[in-house]
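Researcher: Please generate the 3D structure of the following complex. Treat every line as part of one assembly.
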Amino acid sequence: MQLYHHFPFIIIMLPMVMSVLILPFKNEITLRSISMLIQAICAALSFWLFASLLNSPVEYFTYQLGSFPAPWGNELRAGLIEAIMSGAFATVLFFSTMGGGQDTARDVKPGKRHYFYIMINLLTSSLMVLIYTNDIFTGYVFMEIHMLAACAILMAKESGETIKATIKYMCMSIVGSMLFLLSIAFLYGITGHLLMEPAKIVIARFAEAGLYWIPMVLTITLFSIAVFIKSSLLPFHTWLPDAHGYATTSVSAILSGVVLKGYVILLLKLIIRVYGIDVSDILGIMPAIFWLGLLSMTMGSLIALTQKDIKRMIAYSSVAHIGYIFMGIGFNTIFGFAAAGYHILAHAFSKSMLFIAAGRFINTAGGSKNIPDLVGVARKDKLAGVAFLVGALSLIGIPLFAGFPSKFYLATAAVREGQGIWIAVIVLAVSTLLNALYYIPTLQKFFSRDNAQEFSADYVPDKSSSIALVCLIIANIFLGVSYIPLISILERGFSFLG
Amino acid sequence: MPEAKNDKNKFDKFVNWVNADEDISSREEENIADDDNDNRNDKSRDHFDNDSPSICDRLEPEDFHMGVVDEEFDYSEMFGDDSGRIDQDQAAALAENSARRVVLRKGVRDRFRTTQVFFTLVSVLLTIGIVGVLLLALSQMPQFGDPASPTNNEVYERYVQRGVEDTGATNIVAAIILDYRAFDTLGEAFVLFTALIGVIMLVRTSCGSQFILVERTQPLMLRFMIMLISPFILIYGIYILLNGHLTPGGGFSGGAILGSALSLYAISFGAQKVRTLLSFKTLLISISIALLFYAIVKGYSFVIGASGLSSGIPLGTPGNLFSGGLIVPLNISVGIVVAFTVYGLYALFSEGEV
Amino acid sequence: MLEALRSNYIEATALILFGIGLATLLWEKNLIKKIIGFNIMETSIFLFLTAKGYIAGRGAPIITDGITDVEYYINPLPSAIVLTGIVIAVSITAFMLALCLKIYDIYGTLDMDKITVMDMAERSED
Amino acid sequence: MVFFQILLLGFLVFCALAVSFTKRIISAVVIFMSYSIVMSIIWLMLESPDLALTEAAVGAGITSVIFLLVIKRINTMEEARSNARGKK
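Model: Done. Output below.
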């Protein structure tokens, strides 16, 4: 029982307890620095846990909450994948809060600041529970906190559009959590377990005997549809553009980079740990995920082409990149999951950088979000221009940046996977082309010298957002360069996630 | 009640607005006018952004409503300094504006109609399909109430057979909630906390409580009856709360009863009386203390349990009041969180101010 | 298929209520009716779960005078889950109703169609 | 006993349908109140008294009170808005 066994519990409880403790603080700087300190501690503990797991004999460990073992009491479980993901998400949260701090100070009214940062801490802790939990109903409970906190920070800006975006987001994601709860009810009805490992034994027994066939197919479909709605895969994405388009900078970065991914990690754990790869192969849901991913990749990029508002364009490109991730999951092989995991990391880092840079562009252009008004803005705000360039290139898939290895591994996963090789590779190429089609022209507009608007010099970006952008660029390049060790760790992690 | 008049004619009024050309006086139009102007210079439509202190002074008690005063659209700026005189260019701008709006409305109306029909069709088919699939899956599920169904496995047997000796509580449901699966209830208390903070962010007006609301004194009969009943409700709530581990009830239902007793008292005797006892600050502080108590005490027993030690908390003899080990204090803290959240929600929704 | 549904009729009604709640949530124009639809959906799933935990001929899971034999008590786990779920349903309803107040304050209506039309009108202008 | 359960379940389905077909919001909320009261009775018949108590106290009690308060607030905002426009 070494020290690092307690880290998952500390990572979860620290932001939760702090969210209650920061009630008395009122001033913006202390609140932001406390929340960032908490997120930094979570990131540091996760990477320490990751390092100690790397060279520990056992691949994963379970942390028993309370004095009763698994099927009776609650349990957390930490392995390589959970450690990497919680570390990456905590870092992205840290940089997004730091990067968007200036906009939050302006948009969130003084009376409501400490409530905003309470919600940021609750978001952090519920995200960590979604990653580390080994119990499906605990996943549901903290999924609700995650949704309420995301809606609360989304509407902290209190303009007409954000409130309408929040209602739309909430209606959609309520349907998602209801389907999730219904599939928990069905799963409990047939297996009698709420924890993932005991449920897997019972489901494996049923799969061989061919018992309860339709309820099992129903539960895995309801789980997937719930996560599709919450992570805005194409047919269920209608809430995303309003939510990400109108929120403040740090909230858009957090929503796009981190909130969407927490549910995908939960679905990955459900598929691998509750059903297992071979049972979910037989159940036949994986091709559906694969085809929905393809649809979302192409349609997301097509719609993003038509957008004039910079933040809505980036939001639609999030829908496309969620499609990549679900395409990777749809292969239902360990390498497919590893490629999807890699793209989760790459997308989290590049997307939050794009949103912070876009926030700075909008501020320099005096608050207007239309791309025509932002022509030549990268000349004025050089650092944000470089950050936007790096983020866009990495999402297109240019080598040396984070997007390239993940798309490359998605293609190799398609080649290794038997069925549907050529469609996947073709659609990957088409959607990469579409990505380029809407990112390159915007980049040209931003960096163009002629007919650049004259921007009033009253907006001076603060130092912390510059630091955040520089660190995100470094992280992006690191992800783009060190892909060989990373993909092997991801593969090893996913093979033991079950 | 505006929605009370059936939606039909309200919607017709709206449809005539959509078709009407000159008459732009209806309320929806006011909002549209709001949106056009604000959107043009693309400041997001912040009705509440002018948080200059003056807004609180202009408030008179009787129209102290949630944000309605901030939202007032001042026509004088739009139509020149006094509303009578409109100079030429403003009139021209207005005419051009309404002409463009006519063209726009036709496009909007058709698009709206098609999406309406399409949307209803999709959701009808969707729900019938889902219910059909669910009933199909249900037909394969184990029978209702038969003892041999898979849910009666070793998990259920241990909860019933060794529930009392493990946790010392005779009400097994309370034992599960507060001892076997206490992490869910921790999440539960934090869901309530998040909802309360979310509602505070949304509904609480920023003018603080220096406004003494004009209290409508309730009829004597109501006040007298409430004076008679509320002690019994409080005793009943406290009984349910404290005996959560012995009889059905526990933190949630006991807290809800106490919360509704507080709200009942606030309804009849005016929120001001309750506010002297339980101001906004004490409400938040007591909820935080209860949450911290739960998190720290239960966190201690999680960490001890995880590292295999036995937490030295005596379980007491099952059956009497202080017998459930940690269950009774946890019940009290969850009860406090639920009671004050319920009262807070009542106060926020009724006056926008706890 | 039919006689299976006849035997577990409570779960069948729970699923029908789920369908009605889902239809109300998706189909209803007024926001408050959407929230009532959500509550109906939520309580129907809890009815389904509680019916799953019921065992014929066994009593409530309160251990009375020391009898800890399995034959006397129903399955307590679904009750624990539903207890947690009810309070989650209340908190989501409270949050959404606060949003309704805010929406009414800005748009002057609770009718999602009118709001979408206003939005369409607004977006089609810029 | 079974007949009584079927009767209550029928009443539940009727209430659920009635919510979407009533015109007035207040009647929808009142129907929902009766819906959750009947639901807690059914839970009592399913031998889970904890749930019946919580559903009665929390589901029927708090949710309905909050619904009615919101409707009252919307009414007062409606009047304030109409007399605000009248005053101008």
